[in-house]
Amino acid sequence: MWNPGKPLRVAHTPSLSARDASWADQAIKSEFLSVEKLLIQTIHIRTKQKLSDLRDQLRTTIVGQAECSISGSPAILQVPLLQPCMESENLLITVDTHTGYFLAFVPQHEPPMIDDIQDCLNKDGAKLDSLLTDLKYWMTVKRCEKTVQHLPVVASTHLPLVVPQGHPASRLGPHTLYIKLCKHHNCYVVVELSQCPSDPQEIVQTYYLMTVQPQAIPEGDPSSATLGGGVPREDGPLDAELPKAFLRVANFLQLDVFAIVHGPCTKIDASLLTGSGKRKQVSANDIQPKRPRFAGYFISELAHVVAFCDDRIPFCTLTVELNKRDICHQGMQIEANGTNFLVKIVQMPAGEGWVKDTAAALQASTLSCTLRLQVKGIKAWLAEFVFCNCPLTSLSAKERGPRRPVCFMYDFAAGTSAQVASVVEEMLQDWNTIGHLYGVVLRFAQAINLDQHNTLMSIVDIKSFTYKKLVLGYGLNKASTVTIYWRPSEKRFHLAFGVVGPTASASNPHTVVSAQLQHEFNQHRSVATLVEVLRDTYAPLLSLTKLPSAPQLGVINSRPQVPVQTFVIIPQSSMHIRLAYRNTYVLDIHCRPEGLIAVRDGAYSKFDKTKAVEDFTPIQGLRAFLSKFVDESACQLRRRSQSEDDNPPSPIPTLDSMDSFLGSGSALKPSSPAQRGAGGPQDPAGAAAGGLRFHHPMTPPSNPHTPASPHPSVLSQQSYVASPNPSFASLASPPSLGGTGGPGSAPGPHVSPSPSVLHVQAQSPGNLFGASSPVNPLHAPSPSFLPSPSSQVPMASPVPQGFMGSQASHPEGGSPFPTPGGSAGSMSMASPAPGTWPGSPSVPRPSPRLAPSPSPHGAPMQSPQTGGSSSMDHKPPQAVLGPGGTRVLPQRSWAAAMPTLLSHKGLDLLCSSGGGTPPQSPPLPHCSPLERFLGSVFMRKSLHRVVQNEDNMTMIPTQEPGVIQFRTETLQCKVSLNPATLQSLHLKLNPTEQWSPEELQVLERYFDTKVASFPYKPNAFMSFTRLMTAPLSILKDFVQLMRLELMPDRNMKWSVQLCLTIPPAAPPIAPPGMSSIVMIRNKVLFFLQLTRTSMGEPAQIAVPVVYDTTANTLQVADKRVDASVVQPSAPVAIIGSMLRRYTEYAPPTGECCIFPSIRDILINLTIPSQ
């Protein structure tokens, strides 16, 4: 029965503790009576009690002495499985308020074994310890993965490994993590987790370094493989789960963690160390120092080990490779302040093909060789060589220090052993490159030190020397460069040419001979020799590069659309170049020292000068043309430098010695001081002359071709026997001697020539004097200048003073003695003035008169070369000079086979556009003199072929070389080169009664300016010759058209141009470039090009016109006009209608209608605006 004096009470079964019971009884007080609150408090108390019992159980097994707190409502048990352990990593266990079952979870992860743990807590707890242990390992693996997540690695718990039985890798535990180093594809850091023997609750981490190789296992025998890092799979058939690719364990090494963590440059907490460096003993009462807080899941030891392996594996591979190649090194070291790893090489081995002195000098100047690994940006190996005592001082400011570092970079790639081996091989090749170049530079430096006159450094500038390459600057402003470097793959030097800064050419002229220079440099390997070759060839090559090389159309008359290159430079060697012109002519050009160039016709054989070889045509008149560009002053200096040093001239020549000198009747062999005939020892002229041509020198003469004999008897009794140099075979005829006064003066008896005439050397025709000069050696000589032993003192010399300044085509010829007066002439002895030397005989000077003077007998004599009665008649007949006429120079077909010496300035003038034009000569095309000459020769050859094939023309034989004479029905034509310039063809017509002088002059001028001029198209000759064979009335009308073309009438609306080749703008009647004038039966086809003289009309119109000789009509030859394809307002249609109207309404006069009808078009043609 209820007793109000007694309060309510609650009984708990099983009973609660007194503290918990008093806390629960508070819910039944009268003022707070609540059954719901009583249930909640009771459940909370029962949950805490149940969790407390579980905590006591776990402390005895898994957790140990770790603190496990129960807190919260509902109550939650926090079980720390790891030490240290974050709250998110604790295993949280609570009780379901409805069922009373345990609930377990980990906030941060979703472990796969959490359901099994929960079942064990609620049912059978036999497996609880093993499950919690697995959870502990699983969470540790997750910590490892979190630690390396920002490193260049990939972590995995299983690998398809192929591990042999008994291998250490086969004994790995089930809790293993494989960390693949992404920078080293075949390397893994293996982390094995295991229990500590002394403390079962502690997990020990063991680290291994493993390298693997890909391997495929036969499908029928997978038993030898252990998969998943030592964990064989138990679920399902093995062959169904095998991956297709496997990894075979190559190397497996356990790492010493203590040595790694406590290595050099590793930071250690200094607060825990004593003064002696030993770790302090920390007691329980000591205040712990404040340490920085780290995330609990970050395992610094693992991160350090992974980074350690990632950094050192490449260097370990590198040192192994260096050991294989017997390269002494100091092993892997840590650079100052721990910035990087490096490997220092003690001594590099000598390279292949090194000279012993070079190897010793390079080893002595090498301070260090260091290998580093660059990881920022592009990952690459860096090899740094440091040198001292650089043999050359360059212009670069960066290369003037005492310490010269040289760096090489090599691709790291994957960093495998094979790739590291290739890196070492490349480094050795680069070292070999340095050695080869250093040897060349060392010899060059020695040559510079021995050069007392500083010649080499005046030629070149050392722009850069980096031990990898040598860059030299030369030429104008030192702007042309040559780079010398060694290419290991080819085992030879390479030369690269370029330009830097302001220069005379956009490209380096030596580019055309780079292959030859490179080949020769690999033969002699002398930079000094290369420098001299560059000096001697720079100016000639620069001049040759000015010549046009663009292909031209219309060069081949039968195939005008085939392009032919104008000039082609064909290098034979660095000093020998062949220059081809239109695949027809070729020049052999040899560069010689001291600024000279030897030029010859390359179509002739080098062994037989009278025979042409190869596919080229000899160039007629080449030697005479080249002689106009001879710089005698430069050539004379070369001869003087060769002979004057050892053979000073005698100041007092005797008359006895000069008697034999003056009595010679033939020219002097240029290479010998002895008298030689033009035909050599077998020549009658050469055999007839005896004795020396000049007085005996006081010292034996020296000559590069004929060494002096020390026996005076030999000098006085016989000639020198020189090497048969064929280049000195072309000798000129003796010069003629005119009167000294006026035309009425005549020399006395026994007149001998002045010694100045004896300076005539081996000349090219026309090079010594002008064609009209009376002192030309090819002119008929005076009878007094015949071979005579007379020793009388001659009278006043009739030779003009200009004879001394004459030019010679071969400046190497002549006496080896210098000119006494020091003139620029090529002759070695002049007429000395009275009083030049004390007691010298009175030998007269040359006459100062420069005007032409006739022969002493008033009529020209015949040269011995022209077929006269002289015993020296050994040459083909030559042309003679008429009174007041132009002297024709003799030509030999093989004369150009002998070289002609030119200076660099002369060759540049020869190749420069607009150069080589005499002041008073007619205007020439704006191209180089060489192109004008070769083009004229090419056109003369084409004309000869055209005239021979033309039925209505007759060739007239002539003895004049280079002259073509032919005859048509009404005219006799003569085509020849301009004797003054040899750079243009000219037509000379013999007048007849049917032609006026003005008409002949128009024809000649038209031929000179339109037919045989630039761009030198041979089909123009065909058109012109067809015109010349046309009937007289037609030709006279064409002459009128030529007059309008040469002298346009300003009162006409249009100017006319007679097209000699079919223009590209013409209607498609025939291929462009073909001959445009065709005569078939009674039809004449020709093309006109009309050019407007006023604005507002078409600029140019190409019109094909057909003239009917029978009907005397003119019409447009365009089928499109008749077929109404062309619009009536088109220019061709308008011209056609005007021609038809002129034919209909013009009064019949019986004259040819070509010129009147075309003149009507030029005056009245009006093209409507489009």
Automatic annotation (TrEMBL):
Pfam families: Med14_C, RM3_Med14, RM5_Med14, RM6_Med14, RM8_Med14
Ranges of Polar residues composition bias in the record: 862-871
Residue span, Mediator of RNA polymerase II transcription subunit 14 C-terminal domain: 1028-1168
Pro residues bias locations: 698-710, 841-857
Ranges of Low complexity composition bias in the record: 673-691, 722-737, 781-794, 825-840
Xref: InterPro entries: Med14_C, Med14_RM6, Med14_RM8, Mediator_Med14, RM3_Med14, RM5_Med14
Domain spans labelled Mediator of RNA polymerase II transcription subunit 14 RM5: 327-414
Domain Mediator of RNA polymerase II transcription subunit 14 RM3 residues, every copy: 36-144
Sequence ranges assigned to domain Mediator of RNA polymerase II transcription subunit 14 RM6 in this UniProt record: 456-524
One of the record's GO molecular function terms: transcription coregulator activity
Region annotation Disordered: where it falls in the sequence: 637-887
GO terms, biological process: regulation of transcription by RNA polymerase II
GO CC aspect terms: core mediator complex; mediator complex
PANTHER family cross-referenced by the UniProt entry: MEDIATOR COMPLEX SUBUNIT, MEDIATOR OF RNA POLYMERASE II TRANSCRIPTION SUBUNIT 14
Record protein name field: Mediator of RNA polymerase II transcription subunit 14
